[in-house]
Structure formats: structure tokens, C-alpha cells
Write a structure and sequence with these properties.
It is a single chain. The protein has 365 residues and is of the alpha+beta class. Among the domains are: 1-43 and 329-360; 175-308. It has helices at residues 7-12, 20-39, 61-66, 79-87, 90-100, 102-106, 110-120, 140-198, 204-234, 240-259, 270-311, 331-352, and strands at residues 44-52, 121-126, 130-137, 315-323. The two termini are 32 Å apart.
Length: 365
Amino acid sequence: MTPARSLVGTIVSFGWMARFRTRALVFGTLIALFAVLAVFPQRQRAAVTLTPTDPTSLGLSGALGQLGALNSVFGNQAAVEVALRVAHSYQVRNIVIDETHLEKRLGKSRLELHRWLDNKVTTRSLRGGIIQTDMQYRDGALALEIVGSYAKATRERLSQISLSQTAYKRDVLEKLVAEAQADLAKAQEAYDNFRLQTRTPTPEFVASTVTERILMLESAIKAKEIELTSARQLYTEDNMIVLQMKTAVAALQHQLEEVKQTQSNEDGTVGRTVAQSSTLFKLERDLYIQRTLYDGYLRFLEGTAVENLTSSANVRVLEPPFIDTERQFWWPAVAGLAGIALLWGAIEFYRLRPPVGARIGPEVA
């Protein structure tokens, strides 16, 4: 039973393959053709390297931190991944096509140019957060212009995204600032009206005054009681001096009781002071909260101005567009050359050591 022939065996079975000169002519010609195609026409590789910029590296970290603008608009996403996605986007290719006038220079439609750029231009990330855009093409000047336009378009697109996010943030903050300002004005008006009603510019001073008055009255009563005790040792209860001291002590105690009244609405009493203090503390707390909110929103709103300044500095060019000095090869032709050489070698090996049962003609010079 004849074994099934392999691909090499099928090729060897052809009659023209019996002559080494013919094989050498065919495969040598193909190898030479692919070798020429791998080198000519000469191809040049244009490249540019970028890296995302950290806002803190611009010397604005202090201002950004104080104004609440230190975080990127892209959140926690890796800046390199965002830049790569933007560099591969349809919008970036549109900018490149318009800036380099490829429609007129290459005579292709916009859709064909998008496919051509997507196939010819490669953008990838390197170690250390570096992004490289390169292109291999026969026209080195055009390739240099295209990769330079890619770098510029990527920066512009990232800047547009940052500006749009900052504009949205600014609109929200402007509304919050307006609301906080209105609430702050209401809180300030309520606080001022309370001071006008109590007829005291600083109502909190009234509490300390009442406390001091109570302490003074208690001290005065103790002093009078000591004097009364001393007088009783010298005089009788009906003595005029003792009676005067008793009257003075009673008057002071009456004043102290009036001051310590908790249910009274009269000025200078504990009840009146506590009621005013409670209202005052509530109004002060509301005023402090509204002022804090207003100051915080205003500080973040000011931070959007700094974000606008740093939006266009999102990408830093490490290496401007350049032409690689290394010799460039057309790798499909190199692969074809290697394939033809391997096939020729397999054929010659097949003829030297054919499989068992295989029949091939004798070698013809």
C-alpha cells in the first residue's frame, strides 16, 4: 500500500524538479526577489515618544492642593492607558488627516485614510510609562509629519477632555456657590436680627455679665454675713447697726434670687440669658456651617482655573519626531524569503533521504 504523499513529496514528484539546475533557478530567483523586496524600496521608520505629565511636576502642587484640584479629571484610571486609548481614537485620526492634508496628498477617501492610518501607525506603551508612536513608510518626510501630528493630536484631544470635564465641574460649583451664598446671607440676616432684637451687638457677652453679677452678689452676701456675725457679738438684735446689716443682706439675697430666676423673661436673669444663649448658639452654628460651605465651594471653584491652566500640559514630549537610523526591512518579504529557503532545504533533504516506499526520479544535473 502506497503511503500518502506529503506536500514536499508532491512537489518533488513534479518532472521539472528532477534537475538541480531548475530547482536552483526557481528557488534562487524567488529568494533573490524576496531579498530585494525586503530592502527596496527603502523604508524609513519615524517615531515620537511621549509621557503623561503629573500636575505636581509643574510646580503647582501647592496651589492645586490648596484649591482642591490635585486629582486628575480621569479619576483613578492609569494615565498611560487613557493616553493610549485617546491616541487610537477616531477623533485623533481625524485631526491627523486634516492637519497633514492626506486626502489631497494620497488621493484616498476619509474612510480609506482611517483604515490606512490604523494599519500603518502603531502606538504602544513602553516601560516607565512612556508612549511611543511610530510609522514605517517609504516617504520618510510624510511619516515624520504624521507621527508628529499624532503627538500633537493626542495632546489636543486630552486637553479637550480635561477642559470639558473642568467646565462641567465649574458649572456645578457655580450653582453650589450661588446656593451657598444665598443660604449664608439668610443665616447672617437671622443672626443680625437677633442681635438687634436683644439690643446687644455681642449677645454672648450678656451670659458672662450675668455670671459675674451672680458671683459678685454671692461674695457680697458672704461679706455682709461675716460683718453681721461680728456685729451680733457686740450688739443686740434690736441694735440699729444689726438691723441695717440684716436689711442689706436681705436686699442682696433678693437681688441674687431675681438674677437666678429661670422662668423670668426680664433682662439680666438666668432664664433670659439661657434662652438668648441657646438661640445665639443655634444661629452662630448655622452661620458657621453656611460660611464653611460657601468658602469650600468657592475654593474648589477657584481650583478650576488652575485645572484649566494645566489641562494643556497633560502630555510631555520626550523625543520630538525623528527618523530611526537603523536599516528598515519589509518583514513580510523577509518571512517569504525564510519560507522559500526552508521549503528548498526540505526538498533537497527529501531527495537525499526519501521516506520508505517513496519513489523519486534520479538526480539530473
